[in-house]
């Protein structure tokens, strides 16, 4: 708590949707689905993620999700992140298919954050993450109060590069974003 009262998290919590794509805060009940997706997508996701200590199955277990969920809630509550479960709306439910986060948010004069995401390979290429990216970035610039958002990708990750390229065609209200690759020798480009 600051001297000025409880911390404020602009633009959070919120649900965002466009067509069948829904972004919402994670729920404790997402543990089993999150774990199943992460474990089933090891070959798809592991090459692009940070190397964590421990086995993939342990780091992506329902028990690990409880820690991830707690950390995401803390980050969102403190205004340092906007973590979203990416879901596909189906006839009778919302099915978890991925994750997108506006994280490392810095407030005050800089008002910036970065975006990271992953998606279940079984729905990749269907426009889910480009739509989720457009929703999250538009929200970050609007109610989230940010001035700069970086989409961190590795240049050799072609599916992730396609997401950013597709995002440029689906975004409608985004006024400014910077796409930055995190690999050595990566480039930075303004996507206005």
Characterise the protein shown here:
The protein has 192 residues and is an alpha+beta fold. The chain is globular, with a radius of gyration of 16 Å. It has a single domain, classed as Gcn5-related N-acetyltransferase (GNAT) (Aminopeptidase, 3-Layer(aba) Sandwich). An eight-stranded mixed beta sheet has the order 1-2-3-4-5-6-7-8, with helices on both faces. The C terminus is likely disordered. 32% of the residues lie in helices and 26% in strands.
Largest sheet properties = 8 strands, mixed
What's the level 1 CATH class? Alpha Beta
Share in β-strands: 25-35%
Q: What class do helices, strands and sheet pairing give? A: alpha+beta
**Average pLDDT, to the nearest integer?**
84
Low confidence ranges: 172-192
Instruction: Provide the CATH architecture.
Output: 3-Layer(aba) Sandwich
User: Strands across the major sheet, in which order?
Assistant: 1-2-3-4-5-6-7-8
Q: What would you call the shape? A: globular
Report the total helices: 6
- Please provide the count of β strands: 8
Count of folded domains? 1
Using the coordinates shown, work out and report the CATH topology.
Answer: Aminopeptidase
CA(first)-CA(last) distance: 37 Å
Rounded radius of gyration (Å): 16 Å
Give helix % range: 25-40%
Q: Any idea what the CATH superfamily is called?
A: Gcn5-related N-acetyltransferase (GNAT)
Order of helices and strands: EEHHHHEEEHEHEE
